Amino acid sequence: MRCKFFAILLTLIGLVAHGWAAEKKPILTLMTHDSFAVGEDVLTQFEQQHGVALKIIKSGDAGAALNQAILSKANPLADVFFGVDNTFMSRALKAGIFMAYASPLLSKIPDELELDPHDRLLPVSYGDVCLNYDREWFSEKGMDPPQDLDDLLKPAFKGLTVVQNPATSSPGMAFLLATVGRYGEAGYLNFWQQLRANDAYIANGWTDAYYGQFTRAKGGTRPIVVSYASSPPAEVFYSETKLDEAPTAAVLGSQTAFRQIEFVGILTGTRQPELAAKLVDFMLDSRFQRDIPLHMWVFPANPTVPLPDVFVRYTHKADDPVMLTPETIEAGRERWLEAWTETVLR
Amino acid sequence: MKLSTRYLLIVPSLIFMGLFYFYPLASIFSLSFAPQDNAAFKGMEKLLSSAYYLRLLWFTFWQAAVSTVFTLLLALPAAYVFARYAFRGKALLLNLTTIPFVLPTVVTAAAFSALLGRGGLVNAALMQLFGLDQPLIRLEHTIWFFLMAHVFYNFTVVLRLVGGFWARLPTQIHEAARMLGATGRVVFLKVTLPLLAPAILAASLLVFIFCFTSFGVVLILGGPRLATIEVEIFRQAVHLFNLPVAAALSLVQILFTFGLMAAYTRLERRSSMALLPETTPIRTALRLGPKDRLAINACLAGMAILLGAPILALFIRSILTENGLGLAYYLALFENRAQSILYVAPVAAIFNSIGFALAATLIALILGCLSSAFLAGAKTKPAAFLDPLLMLPLSTSAVTLGFGFVVALDEPPLNLRSSWVLPAIAHALVALPFVIRSVLPAWRSIPRSLREAAAMLGASPHRVWLAVDWPILSRALMVGAVFAFAISMGEFGATVFVARPQTPTLPLAIYRYLSHPGSLNYGQAMAMSCLLMVTTAVGFGLLEKLKPKLSVSNF
Description:
The complex is a heterodimer of chains A (346) and B (555).
Chain A: H1 2-19, E1 27-32, H2 40-50, E2 53-58, H3 62-71, E3 80-85, H4 89-94, E4 98-99, E5 122-134, H5 135-141, E6 161-164, H6 170-197, E7 201-203, H7 206-213, E8 224-228, H8 231-237, E9 248-251, E10 258-267, H9 273-284, H10 286-296, E11 299-300, H11 309-314, H12 326-345
Parallel strand pairs in A: 1-2, 1-3, 6-7, 6-8
Antiparallel strand pairs in A: 3-10, 4-10, 5-8, 5-9, 5-10, 5-11
Helix pairs in contact in A: 6-12
Chain B: H1 3-8, H2 11-33, H3 38-49, H4 51-84, H5 90-97, H6 105-116, H7 121-130, H8 143-166, H9 171-179, H10 184-212, H11 216-222, H12 229-239, H13 243-271, H14 290-319, E1 320-321, E2 324-325, H15 328-333, H16 346-377, H17 380-391, H18 398-408, H19 421-444, H20 448-456, H21 461-489, H22 506-513, H23 519-546
Antiparallel strand pairs in B: 1-2
């Protein structure tokens, strides 16, 4: 009987393993975070054009993925890494894991997105982290929705806001940076003190904020949440019934949003730098760039590519977002986090 | 068996642990503590001087202890009912209690919020009923909320480990005590409880360690003000990339649990008694009196509320669409809306999950069996050291071990960093302690004299094993296998922090849906969670089917 037991187990494992057997073509590996996505046909096009098999490995959230890339510096896991954002950029460059590559396609990308003068990290996409509100809730109550960060501190907005803990969440961190940029080192803690007094809810991450506390979720009770400027179109795209209007809206007033820029880079130690460069070019080129909005829900870095309909209709960009240099962020991160924890949680 | 040959039994487990646990851990520790950057050591000074970290350690310990006590209080009565009574659907119910074990923390948190949150079902009903304008139950971000979730997760550990053992306690001892005039209470306290002690201790230890390293549940349900050591390690390692502090905290965590387990193994050895367990569980009279019926019904009702309600809430959410009841979310799972490579076909995810789970179960069973064989007969000293050693992966920070894999397993022949084998290995590391804790108490309870008697009567060693050991062990092995399978299905341990190619499993698919806005995504996540639960239940059923026929019981 035991023999049969093990025989069945082994057969099943064998079957599964067989399905995962490796391919024969040269393999180019792209390391990235869990939220990376792109159209299947787009990747196939790259594979056919260059006769390679593209392997994508995902390593947790943006922070965890980057740390793994740094830890494996001596013997890299991949050829190309996508998903370093401006909040982590300084850490990545200091670790020296990326090599310079001045892609010819950089000419199509606006200068303000190119933060690395040595072209080790090249901008691929960007998005705004900002407040979202439930439109229906505000029209039912006959209240004006928030226009600015200061609105959250008004008595009428008591108990209405959900933000994420910056120590455990990347939009939470971005929002903290927005307040640092907006109110300055001297004033941001004052804002958070008042926000705490106004009964803001501190969620662990984006998911339990948006799907647990936000009124758009079943059972949620707070109509304002920190999310992305692209969340309203995602609500339309992923709605069950066809919607003509987005059920939520983003607050994008001057100095209320933080702009997150995501970069790609070639890992030093790759054995196929030419091929890796081709992949970087490909990611900056229009075919890939056009695919970004509907898959990753951010804006393509290349402003000339056409945006999908749902983006054009429902997404707005922040005109004057908060921008901090990567060096400022890296230097201040730990201090701000600690001060924030001290002010808001203790 | 000679002493030296006996040591061969433990060798495979030690090699496995050495390669996939101690080597990665040593690599990441030596990297973290290498004096390369003086700035990083500033954090260390703070670590030693700050009262904050002491409070952190205390809170972590305290919440784990309270969680364990609550779980025991609630699950022991159920273990009694399951051990002593036969009723219809018992085997199925037992499997269903293990389902919570596989649910991702985000999903469990969602289920609890849906039930008991500010705008949850219970509050909505209460407000309607009593005409209140404020929610009555305010558990969010309190200790109670996550303690409940800990009981929800760990109930099954106590029920299965203790219940399985209890069902085999010989009744003659109780009858003898009763005949000598002891009351029911005295029999329980003086006879039953001491005999159950090894199983209760084993279950308590597992629950304690599980809660000790609890992460997501505490963060989401308990709120950001309540942090465990594990939370702090994650924060330091991932967000601040302060490896020295993260490594030091991991070390504290490991040393603390090692000490605890060393104390436990001593206790376990002292409390275990060879008492000739029954091979088939004892049943009370098949005719149940009204008192028995009351006990069974009360137990089942309690379990329905505690374990059933959150699961039911998830299921309802997966079929309650904007257009009323329907299967829209399930159907949407099969549709790749954006033609994305991100898309996970449900069938593929089920296939991947089961593949990893079977591989992990197989590894954990083989190693667990060999280790238990060694530990059951080993001298006190080596066992007192080796037993706690084998338990360590359960209490080790997932981030730390995950980063350790990245650093250590980077060269052939061990270049497994992005191999599909690694998740199975990582799961097996966490599952191994469960197998050992299930099997060892059973193994120790087999009296030596029984084997000797069988041998004297002319039975070959093989026959002795088949007739004496196997019937008693197979049931305990089954319990271990179920937990190993569940641990892998639920993606426990370091796998969240390990790079992996396109082999998405059910929990990963759930996370993926929950990271984008839109009601359809949420519905699909709930539908996928239900698929995960059903797949797990079917998996348990299959494991039961594979169970050798020698043991007849259904506990």
